C-alpha cells in the first residue's frame, strides 16, 4: 500500500509513542519516533522534514521542550503541520501553542477518532498550503541541465504524461517531483511508487486522487502490471502520471517485445532526459555546497557553505559512476568532517578522510558499495557512520546514540557488533 505520508512522533513516553505508531501505521502512514529533541533533529537530518509532527509539550531528559521545538520547526517550515500533545495541558498553553504555529492541540489520554480526524485535516491543510518539506530547486550552468529544467518547466505548465530517462542515480524522480511542485497540482498529493514491487491494489489506490503519481523504474514493471496500468490509463484516471526509466533497458525490453508498445506511447507524451554528472561538471561546486548546506541546516549549524578551489578541482577529477547519489554520499561524509572541525569551507581533505571513499578502496563512495551485496554495503556504511559519530562526541555513547536517534543500549550493541565483524549487525 502506498504511504499516505510521513509522521514524526516526539514524546518522552515510550508507551505513547508505541500506541501512536500502531494507530497511524494501521491507517497507512509512515511513522518515525523520537524520545527527545536530539533524536527528533537527528531523524530530520537523516530523512528530511516530515509531512506532520506530533509533538509532546513536556519532554523529560531533552535539551528542548516541545514549545521550543515547535517554534524552531515553524521557523524552518511555515507550512509544516504540528499537532501538540500534553498530559498536563490547559487552555492557556493550547492558545500559546496555536499562536506559535501549532495546527491543533490534543490532551492525553486522547480519543483515537479525534486524533485520526486531526491528522487527516492537518495533512489536507499541508497539501493546500503547498505541502511540507524542502522546496525543490535547480540551479545550473550546464547546458544539458538547463535544457532539462526548461523542458520540465514547460511540462509543469501542462497536464501531459511525462517519461524521464537517464542513468540510475541522476535524479530522475527528483525532476518529476519538481514538475509536480511547479504545476497546478502542487497543493495536492505526489505519490512515488517503485515499479518492481507494484501490485494491483497499490496501483488502484495510487491513481485514485487528483495529485501526481511517479512510477519509478517503469522498465521493472511486470507483464501483468503493464497490462493493468495500460487499462487504467485508457480509462483516464484523475491523477497525473509521470514515469522514470533507464532508457537503454527500456529500449531493450521494447525490442524484445517485453514492454507493451501501447503503454510506452501513453507514458511518453513528453520525454525528458536527465543528464549525468559527467555532463554537469560545471555544477559540481554549487551542488556540493547546496547538499552540505542542507545537512548543516538540518543539524542546526546554519550559515553558507563555500567549496574552495582545490576542492572543486578534486570534485572534477572524480568519476562519479554512482551519479548524484554518489555525490550526496560524498557530501554527507564531508559535512560530518566539517562539523567535527567547526568549518564552513569544503577542502579536498573532507573528501579524502576516513569517509566512505576509504571503505570502497578509493573507487568512489556509492559506486564502490554498489559492487557488493546489500548487507555488506550497509555494514560498511554503518561502521563508518558510527565511528564518525563517536568521534564527533568524543566517545560519549549517550550523546552519540541520541544524535543517531537510537536507544543507548541498542546503539552500544550495534557499535560492538560492527567492531567485532558484524556478528550482530542486524541488531537495533
Topology:
Blueprint: E1 6-10, H1 14-26, E2 30-34, H2 37-47, E3 52-56, H3 66-76, E4 82-86, H4 91-100, E5 104-107, H5 112-128, H6 143-156, E6 162-165, H7 172-182, E7 190-194, H8 200-206, E8 212-216, H9 223-234, E9 240-245, H10 247-255, H11 261-267, E10 270-273, H12 284-298, E11 306-307, H13 309-316, H14 323-341, E12 345-346, H15 356-359, H16 365-369, H17 374-392, H18 397-404, H19 408-419
Parallel strand pairs: 1-2, 1-3, 3-4, 4-5, 6-9, 6-10, 7-8, 8-9, 11-12
Helix pairs in contact: 2-18, 6-7, 12-14, 14-17, 17-18, 18-19
Description:
Mean pLDDT is 82; it is low at 353-367 and 421-428. Helix 6 packs across helix 7 and helix 17 crosses helix 18. Helix 3 (66-76) links the parallel strand 3 (52-56) and strand 4. The protein has 428 residues and is α/β, with parallel strands linked by helices. It is built from 19 helices and 12 strands. The protein has a 5-stranded parallel β-sheet with strand order 2-1-3-4-5, sandwiched between helices. The protein folds into 3 domains: 6-128, Response regulator (Rossmann fold), CATH 3.40.50.2300; 143-275, Rossmann fold; 279-419, no CATH class. The longest helix is centred in the last third of the chain and has 19 residues, at 323-341. It starts with 5 loop residues before the first strand and ends in a 9-residue tail after the last helix. The protein has helices at residues 14-26, 37-47, 66-76, 91-100, 112-128, 143-156, 172-182, 200-206, 223-234, 247-255, 261-267, 284-298, 309-316, 323-341, 356-359, 365-369, 374-392, 397-404, 408-419; strands at residues 6-10, 30-34, 52-56, 82-86, 104-107, 162-165, 190-194, 212-216, 240-245, 270-273, 306-307, 345-346.
Amino acid at each position: 500500500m502506498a504511504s499516505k505520508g510521513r509522521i514524526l512522533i516526539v514524546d518522552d513516553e515510550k508507551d505513547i509513542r508505541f500506541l501512536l505508531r500502531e494507530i497511524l501505521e494501521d491507517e497507512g502512514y509512515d511513522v518515525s519516533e523520537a524520545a527527545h529533541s536530539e533524536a527528533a533533529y537527528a531523524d530530520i537530518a537523516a530523512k528530511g522534514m516530515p509531512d506532520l509532527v506530533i509533538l509532546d509539550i513536556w519532554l523529560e531528559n531533552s535539551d528542548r521542550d516541545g514549545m521550543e521545538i515547535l517554534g524552531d520547526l515553524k521557523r524552518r517550515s511555515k507550512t509544516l503541520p504540528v499537532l501538540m500533545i500534553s498530559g498536563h495541558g490547559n487552555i492557556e498553553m493550547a492558545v500559546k501553542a496555536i499562536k506559535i504555529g501549532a495546527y491543533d492541540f490534543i490532551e492525553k489520554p486522547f480519543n483515537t477518532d479525534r486524533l485520526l480526524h486531526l491528522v487527516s485535516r492537518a495533512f489536507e491543510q499541508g497539501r493546500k498550503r503547498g505541502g511540507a518539506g524542502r522546496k525543490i530547486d535547480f540551479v545550473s550552468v550546464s547546458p544539458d541541465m538547463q535544457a532539462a529544467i526548461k523542458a520540465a518547466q514547460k511540462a509543469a505548465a501542462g497536464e501531459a504524461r511525462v517519461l524521464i530517462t537517464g542513468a540510475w542515480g541522476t535524479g530522475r524522480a527528483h525532476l518529476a517531483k519538481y514538475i509536480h511542485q511547479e504545476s497546478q497540482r502542487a497543493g495536492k498529493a505526489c505519490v512515488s511508487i517503485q515499479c518492481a514491487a507494484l501490485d494491483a491494489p497499490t496501483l488502484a489506490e495510487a491513481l485514485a486522487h487528483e495529485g501526481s503519481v511517479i512510477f519509478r523504474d517503469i522498465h521493472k514493471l511486470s507483464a501483468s502490471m503493464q497490462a493493468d496500468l495500460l487499462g487504467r490509463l485508457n480509462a483516464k484516471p484523475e491523477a497525473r502520471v509521470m514515469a522514470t526509466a533507464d532508457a537503454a533497458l527500456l529500449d531493450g525490453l521494447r525490442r524484445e517485445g517485453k514492454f507493451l508498445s501501447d503503454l510506452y506511447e501513453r507514458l511518453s507524451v513528453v520525454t525528458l532526459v536527465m543528464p549525468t554528472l559527467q555532463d554537469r561538471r560545471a555544477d559540481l561546486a554549487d551542488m556540493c555546497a547546496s547538499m552540505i548546506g542542507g545537512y548543516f541546516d538540518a543539524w542546526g549549524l546554519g550559515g553558507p557553505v563555500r567549496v574552495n578551489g582545490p576542492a572543486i578541482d578534486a570534485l572534477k577529477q572524480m568519476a562519479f559512476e554512482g551519479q548524484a547519489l554518489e555525490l550526496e554520499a560524498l557530501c554527507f561524509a564531508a559535512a560530518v568532517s566539517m562539523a567535527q572541525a567547526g568549518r564552513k569551507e569544503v577542502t579536498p581533505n573532507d573528501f579524502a578522510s576516513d569517509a566512505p571513499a576509504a571503505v570502497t578502496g578509493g573507487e568512489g563512495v556509492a559506486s564502490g558499495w554498489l559492487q557488493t551485496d546489500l548487507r555488506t554495503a550497509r555494514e560498511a556504511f554503518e561502521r563508518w557512520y558510527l565511528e564518525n559519530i563517536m568521534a564527533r562526541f568524543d566517545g560519549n555513547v549517550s550523546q552519540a546514540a541520541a544524535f543517531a536517534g537510537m536507544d543507548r543500549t541498542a546503539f552500544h550493541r550495534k557499535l560492538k557488533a560492527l567492531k567485532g565483524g558484524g556478528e550482530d549487525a542486524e541488531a537495533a
